[in-house]
Amino acid sequence: xxxxxxxxxxxxxxxxxxxxxxxxxxxxxxxxxxxxxxxxxxxxxxxxxxxxxxxxxxxxxxxxxxxxxxxxxxxxxxxxxxxxxxxxxxxxxxxxxxxxxxxxxxxxxxxxxxxxxxxxxxxxxxxxxxxxxxxxxxxxxxxxxxxxxxxxxxxxxxxxxxxxxxxxxxxxxxxxxxxxxxxxxxxxxxxxxxxxxxxxxxxxxxxxxxxxxxxxxxxxxxxxxxxxxxxxxxxxxxxxxxxxxxxxxxxxxxxxxxxxxxxxxxxxxxxxxxxxxxxxxxxxxxxxxxxxxxxxxxxxxxxxxxxxxxxxxxxxxxxxxxxxxxxxxxxxxxxxxxxxxxxxxxxxxxxxxxxxxxxxxxxxxxxxxxxxxxxxxxxxxxxxxxxxxxxxxxxxxxxxxxxxxxxxxxxxxxxxxxxxxxxxxxxxxxxxxxxxx
Length: 437
Hints:
Layout: E1 8-13, H1 16-27, E2 31-41, H2 44-49, E3 57-66, H3 85-93, H4 95-98, H5 102-157, H6 167-178, H7 183-194, H8 201-214, E4 230-235, H9 242-256, E5 261-266, H10 273-284, E6 287-290, H11 294-303, E7 309-314, H12 322-335, E8 339-345, H13 350-359, E9 367-371, H14 380-388, E10 393-396, E11 407-408, H15 411-419
């Protein structure tokens, strides 16, 4: 195989370097490595441990030929050009060693030659695998829509004895699910729409709008009493937007409606909460009081008896802390609240919102305020959550900016927001919408 005598020789060692060293001792310094492979050597120990501790030992086997007598290597065993970029990188790494030990370069290049050829083959395999992976991914994406359509159809047809639904109804179901609406709830809505029997686009859209609207319980906004102050409290976990909600209500009634409004800060746990309420009072000329516990709360309400509306900003309680929620309940009872609004963020999942409502149920809330609608990426969760709760929405908010108005809950506006109306202004329009009847 290209050696001086046309013959090759086999040398073995525990490492490649050991095998090369043996070859040079036998054939001289000018050798060409034709082939390299790992071999298993069966020993007495390996026979005893076979099937127990791992079996045979490994050694490196080199097939080596002597270089030509004129000092040039066999072209078949070692091509003039590197088989792939790996050899160029390998040779560059040896430049520093060559000046100190010329033999090192030759020995390492000879030992690496089989690996470089193997690397060239592996590169081709890797490229083919990458191409196949891209093709499979494209195929998966193309078939995903078909599978979604099939699953939606199966869900709709799982009612037994129902004729095949139209493409229009199937499209509505898929659209509702894509908006984050629970699949079973989406099926109920489609069934309700289907009962009309008219599948013209205008009729279907109108029925869809009504079906979604009916599943959004709405409660009345804050209603001021004819005599004495109306006491309203906002409760809920931390981070839901209670203070911002109280501020928006204070601006709505105190500034826009020109009512006498007082604020009670019970949020003694969050750093900076007291300063936030005090600044709000100074900016808009609102009466301010602070209370911690039932006794102080009773005194604070009495001190604001001349106001038409008293808003209480409570500190966030953990939904897992039953004692803290119990203490909050006692404080609200001492305040003689007329309305208690549970403040929840639309960023939470419908299961989380339903769970929070159950945890705060002992505090006696009678309405829900949904915040951060402008940040919600899955507004279908609002419909999912409200379908789980018996309590109606009183208000919704969209911006943390105090100047942005708070909106009284409106079925029509919420339905169009959930269904994807770009403006989200609702069919009734206006800042405040219909209350529950």
